[in-house]
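Follow-up to my post from last week.
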Amino acid sequence: MSEVKFNFDNIDLVEFGVVINEADEEKAILVPVDENVQNALKDMAKETLKLMKRYAQNRGGPTKYEPTEKYESSEYIYLSINDEKAGHIKQLHYAENLLLDGNILDKIKHNPSSIFCYFCRLRDKKGQRLTALRKASQFKGILKKRLLSIMTDALRLIDGPVFKLDNNFSILVDSSIIHILRPNEFEFLGKLKEAILASVSKNIEAIRNDIPFVDLDGLEKYAKAHPRAARYLASIKTNMQISGITKESLKRVCEEAGVKVYEEKDKIKVQKGYEMAFLEILDRRRYVIELIEGSPERFKADSRKKL
Amino acid sequence: MKEGLRFVRFFMVLSSISPLFILWAIRGPCISTNNCVISEQYFIIFCIFMFIIPNLFLGYRIFVAWKLNEKREIAVGRAEDHRDHLLVYLFTMLLPFYFADLSTWRSLSATLIALAFIIFLFWHLNLHYMNIIFAVFGYRVFTVYPPEENNLFSGRMAFVIITKRVNLFQGERLIVYRISNTVYLEENK
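User reply:
Got it. Predicted complex:
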């Protein structure tokens, strides 16, 4: 895990924009802003970095994002920009020559919920780009006032309760890493739910070769209808070692964990109602402890850390 | 996307036709007769006004963009040099209007209406970048097309870049000031 690849002391360019969602079409639109707003955006990005460093210090460094993990509302996690789950945010980071419309906020004032998020693109003197994102919530307040003038339609910082930028961003994206401060917002902004559901078949195919003795067809159908199961599949494919699992060891662990499976035509099939539990086993989330002899206790781990 | 900044673009169009008023001021309102319907004195004052005000406005808009730091990054996919546009502009607009007869109310009205058509077309077709003033200060005008890529958010629009560079190459990234939503000015290089 590397530092944020961006020089915050040498910022050359600040661009501000919104992603709007209208009629199922998503558009990223730049909004011109004056130097005061640009400075406020720079401060927000710096504050985000400061918070990330503080969380990293408190928890012994950032951890890699896992779709099945339960996270606090704020903690520092990261994900490679080349990870397939980063697709949506990666597209925004690498987008070129975005549309620019100084009147866009005025145009959508009757439908402020169409603003999906706001973002800021910074460029340092070396030409490195940093994209910072935040889910639009407080930002919607701006739509109540018209801030245009004749000479320029750039937004300006003004006194009073018209528009309040947040204190920090939720995500910083550099050339290789997505740095996440608010995991929930990352999942929302990255459209993770949709991406993970869409990749169920691909993930099933990826693990099929490693455990050919398991009938995965039923699990695929189940995962397509259950986002949590789809998350387990994504996690198993990305983070867990599957090759090397034998039919016997899997059957034994299932029995110990109380997950009902049966064999048919040389393949392990999962009994209806136990699909989620079976995936939890593959994702190393079900375990048994027998501290009192003869009384094994079964647990499920919402969060886990490999020792 | 709508172009926006209508007022700015209108004055930029007036600025682009402003050299015509210098030519008219030198020539006077009438070519071959002394029975002019407008006084030469007022005509010259009008011409000077029509030259100075739009160009002052253009200068002010550039100043505002600089003052507010209205910069953005533009990636070059393909760039076309538009020096030929200036020649077309010169021969199809400036020279025919220079020879226009303004000695009668009828010819004066026809000329002004024709000029209004030209102003409207320049404004409507976003040709407000065509301006001899830029060339006088050593700038060239390029149309820059976006890189061809399959990105959901990337813009597909072409931009006009006014720059002192002689060439723009594919893959270059320019930091430019916004004059209007389609016309951008690069700082001296």
